[in-house]
Amino acid sequence: MVMQSDLVFPFRTGMRLRFPGPLPRAADVVVIGGGVIGVMTAWFLAERGERVVLCEKGRVAAEQSGRNWGWVRKQGRDPAELPVMVEALSIWDGLPAAAGADLGFRRTGILYAAKTPADMARYEAWMVHARAHDLDTRLLTKAELDAHLPNAAGWIGGLLTPSDGRAEPWIAVPRLAEAAARKGVTVVEDCAARALDIAGGEVAGVVTEKGRVAASRVVLAGGAWSSLFLARHGVRIPQLAVRATVAATAPLPEFHSGAASDRDFAMRRRLDGGYTLAPGHFHEFFIGPDAFRNLRPFWTVIRADMTGTRLLPAAPRGYPDGWLTPRRWAEDAVTPFERMRILDPAPNRAEVERLRDRFGRAFPQAGRPAIAAAWAGMIDTMPDVVPVIDHVDALPGLTLATGMSGHGFGIGPGVGRVVADLVGGRQPGHDLHRFRFARFTDGSPVVPGPSL
Ligand SMILES: Cc1cc2nc3c(=O)[nH]c(=O)nc-3n(C[C@H](O)[C@H](O)[C@H](O)COP(=O)(O)OP(=O)(O)OC[C@H]3O[C@@H](n4cnc5c(N)ncnc54)[C@H](O)[C@@H]3O)c2cc1C
Question: What is the reported pTM?
Answer without folding.
Answer: 0.98
